[in-house]
Amino acid sequence: MNRVNLAIIGGGLVGASLALALQAGAKARGWKIMLIEPFAPGDTYQPSYDARSSALSFGTRQIYERLGLWQAIYRRAEPIRQIHVSDRGRFGVTRLTALEEGVPALGYVVENAWLGQCLWQALDPEVVSWRVPSEVTHMQVLEDGYRLTLNDDTSLDCDLAVLADGGRSGLREQLGIGVRRRPYDQSALIANISPSQPHEGLAFERFTDDGPMALLPLPDNRCALVWTRQGMDAKRLAQIDDRSFLKELQGVFGYRLGTLQQVGARHLYPLTLVEAEEQVRSHLVVLGNAAHALHPIAGQGFNLSLRDVQALADTLLASQAPLGDFATLQRYREAQRPDQDLTVGFSDKVTRLFGSSQPLVAAGRNLGLLGLDLLPPAKRWFARQAMGLGTRADVQG
């Protein structure tokens, strides 16, 4: 029977970031960390026009700088220097700029494959080992941890198990951890776009009566599109030919980046706000999308998860109690609760406010955008939320 101190179930961006955040402290304590992941990380980075990407907030940059990884990530990161927020067909608009906020960039857009490659290469095999391709099929509670049964019928015991296996976590359900679901009755269409004009680090958040849209700058003058539409309409947009799709997108987005010339593969994701009713138990933590899956339009999901990762690592490494101690895990949960509540609430309210086509709501948000541009304190608060600094008093933006 094998035993490790910490088993991270899910070796994606969240799980690998936790391993890295714990790595130095784990080495000093003699801890062994196991990452269990069904998909093997690639040995090399392969650039692709259609690569999926994530918007990393300025706060996320600061965390990866602390972990010594930012220099590697930045080689393929596109800075967001301005965010243009508008409501289609109405006069309300606000602009956030890195210059006004006193930061080099409001955020960065990075291909997930590149971020993953940087993380995996930074892991020390003396501390962090992999079981890949491998899946956990069953979790048994022990007095001092968990026994994990893997899909090759082997078992692994651990002092602390971390569920980081995504929003559709079957293990979360198996353990009887309930979830709160708030369906948005929308799907997000994700694709990469090439405009005729340079994007120059400008990101767009555009709100329409049919749903919100984000266009984020990528390397090689591509843009990452997140277009939220009602279910059947989203399916139609995913299926029409490229020329028809670009024509319809151009009609909604306009010509701020010139002509939209190329679209890559289109992917659809049904949207539901999901929150786990428990994030910690004795010897167990639920992390990442398994803990909270947010609407992508506000770009907050991964950034919130990374702040959870850093808070969890700091709490575990500061504790003198045995790994998996419930009181220690509760301290982590209570410390992160304000950040999670604020970020989930901010994301949900933005989604519902800007997803409504009711005239009174539309007029109110239009005035709100105008007010943001005119009232520096309100704009500053909005900017700090967008940069992932909303509850962090320790950070000077």
Describe the protein in words.
The structure is a single chain. By secondary structure, the protein is an alpha+beta fold. It has one domain: FAD/NAD(P)-binding domain. It has helices spanning 13-29, 58-66, 70-74, 98-101, 112-122, 170-174, 231-239, 242-253, 301-318, 326-354, 359-374, 376-386, and strands at 2-9, 33-36, 53-57, 77-80, 82-87, 93-97, 107-111, 128-131, 136-142, 145-150, 155-163, 179-195, 202-208, 211-218, 222-230, 260-263, 267-276, 280-281, 284-286, 292-293. Strands 5, 6, 12, 13, 14, 15, 16, 17 and 20 form a 9-stranded mixed β-sheet that branches. Strands 1, 2, 8, 9, 10, 11, 18 and 19 form an 8-stranded mixed β-sheet that branches. Strands 3-7-4 form a 3-stranded antiparallel β-sheet. Helix 1 packs parallel to helix 5 (112-122), helix 1 (13-29) runs parallel beside helix 9 (301-318) and helix 11 (359-374) crosses helix 12. The radius of gyration is 21 Å and the shape is globular. The N and C termini lie far apart (49 Å). It is an enzyme of class 1 (oxidoreductase). Its EC number is 1.14.13.-. Belongs to the UbiH/COQ6 family. It holds the Pfam family FAD_binding_3.
